[in-house]
Amino acid sequence: MKTLVSAALALAALAVHSPAQAEDLEFLLYNDSSDDLVEFNVSPASSDDWEANLLAGGYLAPGYEIGVDIADGLTTCVYDIRGIFADGSEAEDYSLNLCDLGEYTFSD
């Protein structure tokens, strides 16, 4: 799989900060677009700000996927997501129930 190790490390770093009582969310992120995904943000739907780029220093090439673990210590399932691509385009989706979703696909 052509995902970068740095992206996996960034996602794993979130797991270190979660309290034991909170449930981690796991889902697959697919890039079915025609360009590299260079930034990926996940924030609780109740937040007005985007959290850090989970692909910092990495990217997700078209046709590939990566496992995402959200271990932010929250018990919510409802998140907003944003993807930014190498060509500068953005895609945003709001109020997703990631507990039920299991996967998310960016496409053209």
TrEMBL record:
The keyword Signal belongs to this UniProt entry's keyword annotation: yes
Source organism per UniProt: Ruegeria haliotis
Classification lineage: Bacteria, Pseudomonadati, Pseudomonadota, Alphaproteobacteria, Rhodobacterales
Keywords, in A-Z order: Signal
Protein name per UniProt: Argininosuccinate lyase
First and last residue of the signal peptide: 1-22
